[in-house]
Write a structure and sequence with these properties.
The complex is a heterodimer of chains A (523) and B (337). With 523 residues, chain A is of the alpha+beta class. Chain A contains 16 helices and 20 strands. Chain B has 337 residues and is mostly helical. Classes of the chains: A alpha+beta (523), B mainly alpha (337).
Chain lengths: 523, 337
């Protein structure tokens, strides 16, 4: 009798627990599982995906990408900017009837506030920095160079003019980037330094609350100027462990999660409640050779290195379907990519001959460093390094490989303590972001490759107007690049976005940013 | 008793000073520049230098130490480089999550650990003893990280009995009140007759608490068994039996009470470990506690957060040990130093 009662009690308990176990009906709240909490929610301050995936729902810029493409269209501006004949002025007419989430109107004062606070040292909001983007994009003056943006001025309530110190065709697309988002000056002045935790923009979603290291909640902006979001809101949930995120998605506790490493994707592919949407990503994975010190100062040694690596084997073994072969440090999706330039073939004999011609003592000792963790443009840095080490042994290179945790890795790379380092870039829809951004001044030029002719060409390509003219200059620059071989280009990464079968309407953007206003959830 | 407590309490401050000093100077051995890490790969050398000056990192080490210790004396542990918030505020925001998990885990570990230890000690050479001891050996051998994933896979994904992680179902739109979600749930339940928060909080607590309880449970079981074996061999136990007392009274009233003394010490230490931040458990179960926060601070070279976090953890540990020593002395008046 006691036993029967005990069994009955256990059955009731298990049934009760199972009833509790089903996730609460979500309605139209989408839950996105991410690995880390946002750092800040002020788009001018952030430079990492964990923050930008949230701010991209709350804020908008004057321009934006057309959904799923690399083309630019107007957003808070009612049309693309008018460019003066001398190329020194961009005039933006603002869209009418747009309001911030706090009910204040979008106007020229708001645009000037949002942009000038990042650069003007006398601006009362400038102290709440650091505002890195203006410097990294060359907009702000540094000790050695004048800034491209001379000033941003209000013409009238509905018109803003951007004054350049020198013509620059690349300024245009940067007004679609998140750091140029327009923020509510009223809210910024109310919250002061705390605005970074209390964001107010014009976007399809507005901020509700942030529980640190736990979740950020947004709700639909009912007063949005465009088509209202289909979701009632979004919860960005912090789920630090990748396996935990995968299981949350399988269980229905998350509707979308950050793209996992390849092994995680394989688990999800087998689950009928999950689908994986594939898309292109403007990213390039490569190995940068130190052109300042060490064996790769010699061009022939660099060329030998490139001929000696079987990149097809790396692509097959490491990337699988996660990457597409590339030969230039520019995704082949973008204009400006010259298909006609011949690539380096895998040719160990040619590599040996180049080393002999270079007259360097053999074997050539190479200190190679790789970063840990998965990146869409390099799923497994360690495996890539090991394959290269084995391949180059027969050619005449003695490659030692090392890794460090992230902070130390980039310290060492920035200090030039390597011969070859793993690197990559996920960029924007303009060749300038890759060809100029990665191989001229600045910390992005990890290998310190300084070729004057190349720099001249990509600098001129910034100034000339028109894709046709710029493409010609980029083609010449790419020829120089290919001949000099400062990096070994591996592949372009692809995005594999896992989501519940309930999720409809998600569009993958090639710049890797996440926009959820078109997404809906099947009930 | 009073002088005993006073002597133990006096040792707290120098211990804490030692820990703070050690942590402060150890960070100079770690590679990486926090300013560079904070500003990211795009930062210019000028921006990095400027931030280092703003944070005082360019000052001599001993001057930084002096400033830091002076602030620490006022319980001001500075501002987190990463978030810009006061370190003490960051810790206090996350501490309820850690306490809730640690209390639940130690309660499970204590109850079942003592039970297993008593069973193992009083049913020698039976299947019960073998199960209890094999179970405890398995428990202490299993990595928490792995155990957590197995629990999620079995009970969440396959059997669909429990959630995979976090503290409460995010779709329940109720605000936390105290930060202790089980308590908050009780408030909502009794005040607003809305029991969803309470039920969800308890439901979410089960798996992480089980995972975190496994190692302490195993340790407590083994210590309880050893202690009970020693006690049950004592003359007074034989006397109690000879007097005709039931075996249940002999074991639980006479045996266990005295056997608990070393067990209490172990429970205290294990509780301290749990409070210090069960990093792996918090990561697997997405539990926003102190451990996870401190781990991220280390990766980000957020020195002030690391120093503040370690000081906090050390204080908790020291206070728990003090409490355990006091309890020990209270339970056994023969113990005095």
């Amino acid at each position: 009798m006691v036993k029967q009662r005990l069994m009955a009690a256990i059955a009731v308990l298990v049934t009760g627990v199972m009833a509790l176990a089903a996730p609460a009906p979500g309605g139209d709240m989408l839950i996105y599982g991410k690995s880390k909490d946002a750092r800040f929610l002020d788009p001018g301050l952030i430079d990492e995906g964990n923050s930008s995936m949230v701010t991209c729902q709350i804020f908008e810029s004057l321009l934006r990408y057309k959904p799923g493409t690399t083309e630019i269209e107007p957003c808070l501006a009612e049309s693309l900017p008018a460019v003066s004949k001398d190329g020194l002025e961009l005039t933006f007419k603002l869209r009418k009837g747009v309001q911030f989430h706090d009910g204040t109107p979008l106007n020229a004062d708001a645009v000037v506030f949002s942009l000038k606070r990042q650069n003007d040292k006398s601006h009362p909001f400038n102290k709440f920095g650091p505002w890195n983007h203006w410097v990294s994009k060359g907009w702000a003056a540094t000790a050695t160079k004048a800034g491209i943006i001379k000033d941003i001025v209000k013409v009238d309530d509905g018109t803003v003019k951007v004054l350049l110190s020198t013509p620059d065709s690349t300024v245009f697309y940067k007004f679609a980037l998140y750091f140029t988002s327009i923020v509510s000056p009223t809210a910024a002045q109310k919250f002061q330094g705390e605005f970074r935790k209390n964001p107010v923009g014009t976007g399809p979603f507005q901020f509700v609350k942030w529980q640190k290291d736990d979740q950020i909640m947004l709700k639909r902006n009912e007063g949005y100027w465009g088509p209202k979001a289909k979701l009632a809101g979004i919860i960005f949930k912090v789920l630090p462990d990748e396996q935990g995120r995968i299981m949350a998605l399988k269980r229905g506790e998350a509707d979308m999660i950050e793209p996992p490493a390849p092994s995680g994707l394989a688990t999800l592919e087998a689950d009928p409640s999950v689908k994986i949407q594939q898309g292109n990503l403007l990213s390039i994975g490569y190995l940068a050779m130190n052109c300042e010190t060490g064996p790769f100062v010699n061009k022939q040694v660099r060329q030998a290195f490139t001929h000696g690596v079987n990149r097809q084997e790396i692509l097959k073994t490491v990337y699988g379907k996660m990457g597409v072969a590339e030969k230039l440090p520019l995704p082949s999706l973008l204009w400006g990519y010259d298909k006609s330039i011949p690539d380096y073939d895998f040719n160990p004999e040619k590599a040996k001959a180049l080393l002999k011609a270079a007259g360097v003592p053999l074997p050539v000792k190479v200190n190679m460093v790789y970063y840990q963790g998965y990146r869409p443009y390099n799923p497994n840095g360690q495996k890539v390094a090991e394959i290269i080490q084995a391949q180059l042994k027969t050619v005449g290179f003695d490659v030692s490989i090392r890794t460090f945790e992230s902070g130390t890795y980039w310290d060492n790379v920035n200090a030039g303590k390597f011969d070859v380092c793993g690197d990559g870039w996920s960029g924007e829809a303009d060749p300038d972001d890759f060809l100029y951004g990665l191989f001229t001044d600045g910390v992005e030029n990890a290998g310190r490759w300084r070729n004057k002719a190349y720099v001249d060409l990509v600098t001129r390509a910034k100034v000339v107007n028109g894709i046709k003219e710029r493409t010609k200059l980029y083609a010449q620059a790419e020829k120089i690049f290919m001949d000099d071989a400062p990096v070994l280009v591996l592949a372009r990464g692809l995005i594999f976005q896992p989501m519940s079968q309930r999720v409809k309407g998600y569009v993958i953007y090639p710049n890797g940013k996440i926009y959820l206003s078109r997404v809906s959830l099947d009930q | 008793m009073g002088s005993y407590i006073a002597k133990r309490a006096l040792l707290v401050l120098p211990t804490l000073l030692g820990v703070l000093t050690l942590v402060f100077f150890l960070r100079f051995l770690a590679p990486g520049d926090p300013a560079q890490l904070m500003l990211g790969e795009l930062a210019t050398p000028e921006a990095v230098a400027s931030l280092r000056t703003e944070w005082g990192l360019d000052r001599p080490k001993f001057e930084q130490y002096r400033v830091y210790m002076a602030k620490a004396a006022r319980l001001d542990f500075g501002t987190s480089y990463k978030s810009g918030d006061p370190v003490s505020k960051e810790i206090l925001a996350r501490f309820p999550a850690t306490v809730e998990l640690a209390v639940c885990a130690i309660a499970i570990a204590s109850v079942f650990g003592v039970l297993a230890g008593v069973v193992a000690a009083t049913r020698r050479h039976t299947i019960a003893e073998y199960i209890a001891m094999a179970g405890s050996l398995t428990g202490v051998s299993m990595p928490v990280f792995w155990l957590g994933l197995v629990l999620i896979l079995v009970f969440s994904v396959n059997l669909k009995l429990f959630p995979t992680g976090t503290r409460v179902d995010p779709r329940i739109m109720l605000e936390p009140i105290t930060g202790f979600f089980v308590l908050d749930g009780l408030v909502y339940g009794f005040r607003d007759h809305d029991w969803r928060f309470f039920v969800s909080a308890v439901h979410h607590l089960v798996l992480p608490a089980l995972a975190l309880a496994t190692i302490p449970l195993a340790v407590i079981a083994r210590i309880t068994r050893s202690s009970m074996l020693e006690i049950m061999g004592q003359d007074y136990i034989r006397t109690a039996r000879a007097k005709g007392l039931s075996e249940r009274v002999v074991i639980w009233s006479h045996g266990l009470r005295n056997a608990l003394l070393p067990v209490i010490t172990i429970i205290g230490i294990q509780f301290g470990y749990n409070l210090a931040g069960a990093v792996l458990t918090e990561t697997i179960f997405a539990w926003p506690g102190v451990g996870n926060w401190l781990y991220n601070a280390v990766l980000a070279r957020d020195y002030l957060a690391i120093q503040g976090g370690v000081a906090f953890v050390a204080t908790i540990f020291i206070l728990i040990n003090l409490l355990v020593d006091v309890m020990y002395a209270w339970l056994n008046p023969r113990i005095r130093y």
